[in-house]
Amino acid sequence: MPVKIRLQRHGKKGKPYYWIVAADSRAKRDGKYLEKLGAYNPNTNPATVDLNVDSAVKWLQNGAQPTDTAKAILSYKGALTEEQAEAKFNAWLDEKAGKIQAKTDGLSKAQAKAKAEALEAEKATNKARIAAAAPVVEEVAEDATEETTEVVAEETSEVVAEATAPEVKEEE
Questions:
Q1: CATH number of the structural domain spanning residue 54
Q2: Are residues 117 and 69 part of one domain?
Q3: pTM for this structure?
């Protein structure tokens, strides 16, 4: 059953007085209603509005559609319209999504931290292995250095000799 929050007219000719009601949308303007939410008297200056805000909010949250005039009165009194309720709901969803994102970020940071610690431990292990193998490598390097120096010296002297020798052109 589609429910509307609307005004129901009472009072004399030229002196209207309205009840704010939740009614079936198929009911007559001044006919049967489901619940009386308040009263609106436009004859006073300023207009008087008596509204049961809790009941109005309950009906709005259950899907009741206010008419344009009723929507203006409800928002004037601070009762939530459907759009405002939707905005609060979306804000709640955004907050919830933010909390979930923060949780996943925290978990990914923890994983990254654990990975970095494992990498540092691996680097320390590799340095220890390199330090243990260093004396053996130095002995091999010393032997290789003496032989390499002799070979490099011979090759260098050959290159220098070729570069300083005069070029001889062959005549035809």
A1: 3.30.1320.10
A2: no
A3: 0.47
Question: Which tokens hold the place of 134?
Answer: 């260093």
The residues with which 15 forms a beta bridge, in sequence order, are: 12
- Residue at 163 is within a domain: no
The verdict on residue 29 lying in a domain is yes
The pLDDT of residue 169 is above 60: no
Burial class (CB in 10 A: 0-12, 13-18, 19+), 153: exposed
Tell me the per-residue pLDDT of 102-134, one tens digit each, with 9 for 90 and over: 888 888 888 889 999 999 998 988 888 888 877
Distance CA 46, CA 23 (A): 27
Sign of CA dihedral 110, 113, 119, 124: negative
Domain range enclosing 90: 81-156
Instruction: Report residue 129 as tokens.
Output: 């292995």
Task: Identify the pLDDT of residue 72.
Answer: 86
Residue 164 falls within a domain, yes or no?
no
Amino acid at 162: E
Dihedral of CA 25/30/36/40: which sign?
A: positive
